[in-house]
Amino acid sequence: MDNSGGFGHKRRGMISVQELSKQFGTQLAVDRLSFEVPAGQIVGFLGPNGAGKSTTLKILTGMLAPTSGAAQICGFDLLRDTLEVKKRVGFVPESGAVFETLTGLEFLEMVAALYAIPQQAALDRIRQFIAFFDLSFETLTDKLLGAYSKGMRRKVVITAALLHNPPVVFFDEPLDGLDANAAVGFKALIQTLAQEGKTIVYSSHLLDVVERVCDRVIMIDKGRLLLDGKPDELVASHSSGTLERLFTKMTGGDELEQRAKDFAKTFRA
Prior knowledge:
Number of strands: 10
Strand order of the largest sheet: 6-7-8-3-9-10
CATH superfamily of one domain: P-loop containing nucleotide triphosphate hydrolases
CATH architecture of one domain: 3-Layer(aba) Sandwich
Strand content: 15-25%
Shape: globular
Order of helices and strands: EEEHEEHEHHHHEHEHEEHHH
CATH topology of one domain: Rossmann fold
CATH class of one domain: Alpha Beta
Number of helices: 11
Low-confidence stretches: 1-11
């Protein structure tokens, strides 16, 4: 079975990043970042606010140009082969932005047209996704996206990112707005996608979820790589107990916890 989303690729090095940097004025958002991700792996991409996670994802999906360094997706160079890269990636941004004056179906049909998916094939895939997310077809046709709840909008954005069956998918806080049942379904979905050979990069602050579903964790801070490895091995090697505890230890969270305790004391009288 060909799980490449219709595109030939090698199973190794689906994402390859070398010394990637991005500067905004005097601010260095991404600082000489390097890593590789093979096919079929779910990678948790972690860091505190402002660490450079979203900037890195926008670079790897062709939305931003790097200041320096290089990257390849499925063997295609990010700068030389931008269109080929965009054909092979799906992206769920943190904002979950959509065209609010379109219905859900109109938006998904537009996305399908951009990827040259035949109309009937697109409609079949859309029906499969909305059934998975427990949405009615009437919801997609009767309401404009501007009237959708945050969770409903997130389901449509996830569907749009996966509609063209990309071999590499980037998720930025994908569970934001999803209810508990939808979140459970989504976690099962990404694990199934990985089993089919797709590469998943999962950026989230929900560290307990990352610890359960991700094969590997890449942790960055101030645009630089801090840690890279299997969650259980990283937690064990740093004697942290949990990934969340390791995260706070590596990114200065211990200091914030102490400040919170000191602040709470001001209410005791």
